Structures are given as structure tokens and as C-alpha cells.
């Protein structure tokens, strides 16, 4: 398999899952700052111009964080990236989607790419402020989910990889994390797979 990623982007969560699985894989950095995602070399792989993008062993391409995470978990059952119990599985998907679709795509995206939310430069600060509010609300929800638990559904799962990357981003925008999220981020950073990814992405 081959993962297209960008250092410190949301693809870091999928990078962590690949390291947790422990099978050999290739990785290729895409320089988002220089717009490499819009050039033919990458759009021929993923016309959405987004990372994470996973090219599977049969050459087929999978995009969207929750779908890639689910695929990796189900195709590598020995890695225990999803609980066995159907209710806990559904909960892991619920938390994954909340981190990606709400905290990332509504909260952080407004702060990182305000121009995608308003064509009027005068509204940029208001867009960023709204993004911060949405991220704060999201971490409040996650904090309750994490109460009394080491990981989002008890044991480590794909949900933790998604929660990890948005928690990691909170430092970039100086957003203080509530206590359970802060402890979860430290727990994640202490995992050997996460440490390897931080090294590989030049973030350690
Ligand atoms: N919904 C997508 C979001 C992916 C996404 O927004 N990736 C960002 C990096 S964190 C990206 O590739 N941005 C490049 C761009 O929009 O130009 C997913 O779940 O994978």
C-alpha cells in the first residue's frame, strides 16, 4: 500500500494506523503549501486533491479518512483497530466522524482556510472566530466521551487516530484542550507507533 500524506496534516492519523498495523507500506509526501495536490502528478491519483489518499495493493485508490480507517481496521483484524462488539464499533465510527466532519471540517478548516468559507476578506476574522468556537465545542463533547477512559471506546481504535490529529492541531491555534483530551493527546504521543510517525513526518 502507499499513503500520500502531508506532514502534520489529517493524514497523520492514517499514518499512525499504518504504523500500528506494522505491515510494510510506502509513503509519499505531498507539498500542500506549494499546491502539489492540484498538479497532474497527484490529481491523476486523487482528483479531490486531498490527503490522506491510500493506494491499495491492487492499485485501487481509497480516500476520506473514515473510509480509509475502516478499511485498514477490517482488512487487518489482528491489529484490533475496531472493537468486536457492534455497538462499540458504531461508537468508534461515530467519534471518528465527529472528529473529521465536525471538529476538522467545520472547526479547524475555518481557521486554516477562511477563504473557503467567505469570498470577502473583511469577514476572515469572523470566520476564524466561528471556527475556533466550533472546535472548542467539539473538544468539550470529546472530553465527556473520554471521561474515565484511556481511549475513545476504552481500547485503542481508529477513533483515537482521528481524535489525535485534531487534538494535535489545537496547539497550532493555541486552543487549550480540556483535561481528558489533553491526557489523551499525551497518551497518544507516548505510543511507539505515534513516535515513529512524528519522526517520519519531521515533527519530533
Ligand atoms: N474529508 C477528507 C478531508 C481531507 C482534507 O481536508 N485534507 C486536507 C489536509 S488536512 C487536504 O488535503 N487539503 C488540501 C487542499 O484542500 O488543498 C477526509 O476525511 O479525508
Key phrases:
204 residues; alpha+beta; four-stranded mixed β-sheet; 8 helices; globular; binds glutathione
Specify the helix fraction band.
40-55%
The Cα radius of gyration reads 17 Å
**Neighbour order of strands in the largest sheet:** 2-1-3-4
Number of strands: 4
Shape: globular
What is the multimeric organization of the chains shown? single chain
Q: Give the helices and strands as they follow along the chain.
A: EHEHEEHHHHHH
Note the main sheet: 4 strands, mixed
Name the average pLDDT. Answer: 98
Low-confidence blocks of residues: none
The computed structural class is alpha+beta
Portion in beta strands: 5-15%
Bound molecules: glutathione
Distance between the termini: 24 Å
Q: Count the DSSP helices.
A: 8
Your description of this structure?
The two termini are 24 Å apart. α1 runs parallel beside α3 and α4 (86-112) packs parallel to α6 (158-172). The chain has a four-stranded mixed β-sheet, covered by helices on one side. The longest helix is centred in the middle third of the chain and has 27 residues, at 86-112. It has eight helices and four strands; from the N terminus they run βαβαββαααααα. 54% of the residues lie in helices and 7% in strands. The chain is an alpha+beta fold. The structure holds glutathione. Glutathione binds at residues 9-10, 32, 37, 49-52, 64-65, 100.
